[in-house]
């Protein structure tokens, strides 16, 4: 997968496979699960832009996912707005709230930042669950509409919704790649590697951390809005921090800071959990040790581990003896 998402021919192969997937797989349940996995992948890409690119572990990510979902649900069901205007408002509101949360959050550092954002996420969860007159409380919201037609294109079938989510996932991956290769992305990496060194060369860590945080919140809101338009029901559990840890698990397994990591990790874990459904709750007895072993032996994730293996193969005998990387720049992980 690392090679596939790192070459032009690889990209073409992946896109073609994704396009023909609904035509090959006729099982509606499988198509439903894959569509959900693409929505999770969009959220995990947003997580990666904050955790992987700037190096700040936010535990409020699932809260912003819920904000995007509830904003779309409330505006369409209670306020009577049109779907696409509500969709745009959900993205804007999530980014704005993320901006103000980030202003305060980045006054803290390290584990204090993680604890603070976890508290923010828990507050969002409590507000959603307790503000019964607005959010419906534990009853949630039902009857959220599917996306309306765009010209001759309709989204009434599962297959059409699959292609809609695929479109947004492709846009998300393109933005992630563009950001990684841009000057802004390289600035993010400089801040992640050393805030002191970045500050010494004129880079403002606070501004870049805030920008990365807002971008991350934007994609969390995007995933949340897509999720609620697909499921058409939402409850407070969507803001539960357990779901946030699941997203973080997808990212860790795939590879933090890599381009293909969020997609690989999400698809792999979703496939494993679905394959082990027959074990019910006992499946975690098998899945848990597999996850621990992966973290121990591949701390950079699957994609990072593959990239490291490929880089080691590229070394010359003299470089292997000296422990050096190849003289040419190692190919960026897909």
TrEMBL record:
It is a multi-pass membrane protein. CDD domains: TM_PBP1_LivM_like (cd06581). Keywords: Cell membrane, Membrane, Transmembrane, Transmembrane helix. The keyword Nucleotide-binding does not apply. It is found in: Cell membrane. This is Amino acid/amide ABC transporter membrane protein 2, HAAT family (TC 3.A.1.4.-). It comes from Melghirimyces thermohalophilus. GO terms for cellular component: plasma membrane. It holds the Pfam family BPD_transp_2. GO terms for molecular function: branched-chain amino acid transmembrane transporter activity. Residues 313-334 are annotated as: Disordered. InterPro entries: ABC_transp_permease, LivM-like.
